[in-house]
Specification:
Elements: E1 9-10, E2 16-23, E3 26-36, E4 42-55, E5 58-64, H1 74-91, E6 96-99, H2 104-121, E7 125-130, E8 136-138, E9 148-153
Parallel strand pairs: 4-6
Antiparallel strand pairs: 1-2, 2-3, 3-4, 4-5, 6-9, 7-8, 7-9
Keywords: Plasmid
InterPro entries: DUF6934
Pfam family, one: DUF6934
Length: about 150
């Protein structure tokens, strides 16, 4: 992709990333996390804004994947998430990545992103769709019934 991405700070194991999203509405601390699922070959991609909170008199932090920032830099954020995928695969080349939206609108957005930019990385990533019944199939745009994706490094 020829879209500028943000600089990523990477965890030692390549499963967590942080960056600053700077745009029309200000600067926001963002995070990308890859977490193993019940199947150790499949890792979930989580993405959102960092939110600090207190629990049991301890400061904690979590990713909020429901807030819509509308910061005027969607393509740069998408390029950053894609960059994190390849950084994750540098450490875990045999793992599959599961991706779905936290809301129906997010799922539509992700489907649109795959439709728009998938061809630019399809020489390095295989895309599979998952429908409402849980069926897995090679993804082809527009994929209107696709509820989630599985991504595999070629």
């Amino acid at each position: 992709m020829n879209i500028e991405s943000y600089e990523l700070k990477e965890s030692e194991r390549g499963t967590a990333f942080a960056f600053v999203n700077e745009g029309l509405r200000g600067s926001f601390q963002m995070g990308i996390q890859y977490q193993v699922t019940q199947n150790p070959l499949i890792w979930n991609l989580g993405f959102g804004i960092w939110v600090d909170y207190e629990e049991d008199n301890r400061q904690k932090r979590r990713l909020d994947d429901r807030t819509v920032l509308d910061n005027g830099n969607r393509n740069q954020v998408i390029a950053t998430v894609i960059k994190s995928l390849f950084m994750f695969w540098e450490h875990h080349p045999d793992k599959l990545v599961f991706l779905t939206g936290s809301t129906d609108a997010r799922t539509r957005l992700y489907r649109g992103v795959v439709n728009l930019y998938g061809h630019e990385v399809s020489d390095r990533i295989d895309f599979f769709g998952i429908d409402k019944m849980g069926n897995l199939y090679p993804y082809h745009p527009p994929g209107n019934g696709t509820e989630a994706f599985i991504l595999r490094l070629r």
